[in-house]
Amino acid sequence: MRAAVPSVPALLCGSAGLLLLLLRWRRWRGLWRKVKEARERQERGLEQMDKAVRAFRQQHPSVNMVSILSLSLPELSKKIQDGSLPPEHVFYAYVGKALQIARETNCITEYMQESETQLQHTKPGEKKGLLYGVPVSIKDSINCQGHDSMLGFVKNIDKPMAEDSVLVQVLKRQGAIPFVKTNVPQSLISYDCNNLILGQTCNPLLYTRTPGGSSGGEGALIGGVTAAVGPMAKDVESLALCMRALLCEDMFNLDSTVPPLPFNEEVYSSTQPLRIGYYETDFFTMPSPAMRRAVRETKQLLEEAGHTLVPFELTNVDYSVYNFCFRGMFADGGVTFLKNFEGELEKGNMGVLSWLVKSPNWIKTLLSWITKPFESCHQFIAQWKKLNLDVMLCPMLGPALLIGYPAKLSVAVSYTMLYNSLDFPVGVVPVTLVTDEDEKELKNYRGYFQDWWDRTLATAFSSAEGMPVAVQCVALPWQEELCLRFMKEVETLVMKKNMIV
């Protein structure tokens, strides 16, 4: 028998298929090459940090870096301002500590070597901003001239920004020295900190647990660098100083969307008793035993200090969560969200959210139809006003979950997502540690729905004895100073209690 001769169409189809596979292989190979380059750049940056710190220590062996790192931001700033502490000493103390934490937690994406040049240009006689000589870390998503803002996307590698963001410009004009960028989860829509490019960032207190997200790199760095400044800090006074520096003429001139309202010292410094609403649960995500205890103990401290605590009834959080997703992210059917992931090697660990975005239009339409209109903001403020509240005390998801679990538990963000959707200023203050008794009580954790998510969340909470647990301090829109004042009150009371104990 003679072998069959392939037809011309079959040959063409086969050739086209092979060509398509070849092109796809070449493209994927190119993407992986970019990932490798980004990882090598990260390692070079860490090596540059190490080299710079070693050179400084050889030239200045008597500098006590530990004492520098022990200073709060206000103390540090004062010593730099009055000349008793050279900016150079501060800078290399922070670079050295940041390097140590980066090696332990993988929190830094890039060293901004031009920070050394900025340091050299600081002059003793020049006008000094509020953050003069203070090293600051910058979240990867915040644009810095000459550096990538990757957000965990391969497509953003080797695309340096043409100019600094307004935030970075203001920080520099106030004398701050941005020196590192920190890791984030892909797309920022996660409370873990992991991406394909640079990998997982760990919690510096326990490496098996997540540092949170999307500012996980910042969280890890601040968790192991005493008194670092940024969008987060180790103490409330540092945050207040940062806010004073940011709410300035430079900010108002550079960004017309920011109301020209300078920091209100009178509100922040007030000692008038507060009328504080509180709740222990949102009835959507059952709090861990440690979360519930944190609110109760903080409530007691505030009452003993002369403040009035008023129970607040939280309703419709489930609808708030669903509407945030469907009316926000799904306003265009998820097209914008999905577009960010086009051509990526990894599609992100978005869990249920990713599935919902990719679901057929009829499912999105059905889910949008069955969710109630988003009226929570008006209801929430109406109840707030009816009770004549100044601020609100409420739980913060905690302790830090085990690595890998946030992707499975998108629904657990209800405690923080509520205030993201309401656009209220919120601060988080650590108030206690997980105890052995908390761990024992956790064994009886069932959740409100007793489903797979509740069982998984119980596992994610477990084995966390000694880990910090925080509360949220909430104020109404445009009342950041009152929020900070409340945070300071909680922080002070907790510190006094710990000193007595």
TrEMBL record:
User: Where is each Amidase domain found?
Assistant: 93-224, 227-484
Gene Ontology biological-process entries: fatty acid catabolic process
Gene3D superfamilies assigned: Amidase signature (AS) domain (3.90.1300.10)
GO terms assigned for molecular function: amidase activity; fatty acid amide hydrolase activity
Pfam families for the chain? Amidase
InterPro entries from the entry? Amidase_dom, AS_sf, Endocannabinoid_amidase
What PANTHER family is this protein classified in?
Answer: FATTY ACID AMIDE HYDROLASE, FATTY-ACID AMIDE HYDROLASE 1
Q: What is this protein called?
A: Amidase domain-containing protein
